[in-house]
Amino acid sequence: MKSLQLERFYPAPPDVVYSALVEAAGGRRGRPVRVRKTDTYTRTVSGKLRSGAFGTRGDVVCQVIPSDGGSTIRITPNHVASEFLVPNLTPRAQARRLEGLFDKVSAVLQDG
Question: What's this model's pTM, rounded to 2 decimal places?
Fold first, then answer.
């Protein structure tokens, strides 16, 4: 099975995007990721992804990578994709759930 990995570019410096990622992931209300560990040196956030109405979760690692003119956030499952994916959800549906985190980061960046 193909490994699930998503990326999104943001036109902002890596430290600013990392702060927004930590804030978006760690928010209490409707948080997409239950943060277990953050690392400012490597700009990573590790935790469990909340997905589905029944609280199904999967481990993910989110990393901010410097890019030309900004930064890229890469979200990758922390283990084998077949274990990560919820049996009743297609990879595309699972990817939509992960994209919710990208949208929250965008909202935090826009709010300034």
Answer: 0.77
Q: For residue 27, give every residue at least 6 positions away whose Cβ sits within 8 Å of its Cβ, in sequence order, or none.
A: 104
Hey, which residues does 71 pair with through a beta bridge? 10, 66
pLDDT in tens, 33-47: 778 899 999 999 988
* SS3 assignment, position 29: coil
Amino acid at residue number 48: K
Q: Which residues, 6 or more positions from 47, have their beta carbon under 8 angstroms from its beta carbon?
A: 25, 33, 34, 35, 36, 37, 59, 60
What values do phi and psi take at 46, rounded to 5? Answer: -115, 145
